[in-house]
Amino acid sequence: MRAITVTEPGGPEVLSWTEVPDPQPGPGEVLVDVRATAVNRADLLQRQGHYPPPPGAPAYLGLECSGVITAVGTEVADWAVGQEVCALLAGGGYAERVAVPAGQLLPVPAGVDLVDAAGLPEVAATVWSNVVRLARLTAGETLLVHGGGSGIGAFAVQLGMALGATVVATARAVKHDRLRELGAVHLVDYREQDFVEEVRKVTGGRGADVILDIMGASYLGRNVAALAPDGRLMTIGMQGGRKGELDLGALLAKRGTVAATALRSRPPDQKAAIVAGVREQVWPLVEAGRIRPVVDRRLPITEAAEAHRLVESNEHVGKVLLTVG
Ligand SMILES: NC(=O)c1ccc[n+]([C@@H]2O[C@H](COP(=O)([O-])OP(=O)(O)OC[C@H]3O[C@@H](n4cnc5c(N)ncnc54)[C@H](OP(=O)(O)O)[C@@H]3O)[C@@H](O)[C@H]2O)c1
Q1: CA nearest neighbour of 32 among 109, 94, 111, 86
Q2: What angle (nearest 5°) sits at the alpha carbon of residue 88, between those of residues 162 and 217?
Q3: Is the CB of 94 under 6 A from ligand 1?
Q4: Do the beta carbons of residue 60 and residue 91 sit within 8 Å?
Q5: How far is 8 from 46, CA to CA, in rounded Å?
Q6: pLDDT of residue 184
Q7: Which is deepest, 8, 91, 153, 259, by most CB within 10 Å?
Q8: Residues 304-324 pLDDT 10s
Q9: Where is the Enoyl reductase (ER) domain (predicted)?
Q10: In the prediction, which pLDDT does 141 show?
């Protein structure tokens, strides 16, 4: 088969569509003929040599895909050849075929195009596992989403609203119109406005019950300041650095929680549990049209370098998809 390989760590130009050995499904795995994959921020880091795949994961880029099952390994009961699926991957999505642990497969939600489905598993699993499973966001609470225009953010905004939360999102002003189309989200232009003040305005001074943060160090102090009493800060990205100063006094006074998680390095049984939760709690919202895939554009996988340039420039809103075949 062919896959995108990284000739040496570097810029988008090191991505190359080349012949590689076909994957074989092991026990408990299925083989998927990839129809599309999606670019995630982590792919840019892996390309640069900063984010090696976890042990046992395929060497190629690609944390999610959609496609058709073409072979089923031993010990797989619930999936059959010919089924259209999407999947959460530890790697290997930028390829014509990928072997996937059965627990990481999802059916394509009714009403969603097979190609668009490629952009759902990573954001659904990340956002649901943090905002719902760990932070227990409930109806009537306020969710602050940083980077509302990111793949993660555009999904989190919709999930928050579908769960009945008030949603506040930070994004550059140029993305606000596109985000307004997703629903009644309160938007903060983080370059011009102070998100702490804006969240307080929206909540009558209370603050956000849950914050989904992708910035890390540079937002740590302000995130704690923006938390409501009993608030939960979930950090999933470190675009603003990894080491910050935490005012434990401020956190303690609010009975706040600060947590950080990474999906990719979770063992397969944890990923399977998250995927099962997504299927049970998120897929019905997608099938009801309350959460839609937000696709900035589709590019052929042979233009993966162009797709990486686009994501690096932050000009996109939602997901950039790579089609295969
Ligand atoms: N821990 C995990 O399990 C996990 C899983 C998936 C993703 N992630 C992380 O989640 C983040 C989003 O991933 P993605 O693939 O969806 O990324 P993406 O689509 O590439 O988006 C990155 C976003 O960062 C925003 N941004 C940059 N500076 C900002 C600032 N100061 N304040 C607010 N937003 C800012 C940009 O929006 P503007 O153009 O508006 O600046 C852009 O939308 C990444 O950090 C990624 O590593 C973590």
Answers
A1: 86
A2: 70
A3: no
A4: yes
A5: 11
A6: 83
A7: 153
A8: 999 999 999 999 999 999 999
A9: 10-322
A10: 98
Q: pLDDT confidence of 218, banded at 50, 70, 90?
A: very high
What are 276-300's pLDDT values in tens digits?
A: 999 999 999 999 999 999 999 999 9
Residue whose Cα lies nearest atom 21 of ligand 1: it is 150
Average pLDDT in the chain: 97
**What pLDDT is attached to residue 296?**
98
How far apart are the two ends of the chain, measured CA to CA in Å? 11
The two tokens of residue 149 are: 């225009």
- Tell whether ligand 1 has an atom less than 6 A from the beta carbon of residue 193: no
Q: How far apart are CA 103 and CA 266, in angstroms?
A: 13
CA distances from 132 to 97, 136, 204, 210 (A): 32, 4, 24, 10
> 167 CA to middle of ligand 1, Å?
17
Residues 171, 144 contacting (CB under 8 angstroms): no
Q: Which domains does the chain have, with CATH numbers?
A: 2-120+264-323 (3.90.180.10), 124-260 (3.40.50.720)
Residue 146 CB–ligand 1 contact under 6 Å: yes
Conformational region of residue 147, where left means phi above 0, alpha means psi within -120 to 50, and beta covers everything else: left
Tokens of 27: 């026990």
Q: How far apart are CA 168 and CA 188, in angstroms?
A: 7
User: Whose CA is closest to 211, among 230, 192, 194, 184?
Assistant: 230
Looking at the chain, the whole-number percentage of residues with pLDDT higher than 90 is: 97
Contact between 237 and 41 under an 8 Å Cβ cutoff? The reply is: yes
Q: Is 236 in the pocket of ligand 1 (CB under 6 A)?
A: yes
User: What is the phi/psi pair of residue 264, to 5°?
Assistant: -60, -35
User: With contact defined as beta carbons under 8 Å apart, do 104 and 275 qualify?
Assistant: yes
162-198 confidence digits (pLDDT tens): 999 999 999 999 999 999 999 989 999 999 999 999 9
| Ligand 1 centroid distance, CA of 305 (Å) | 19
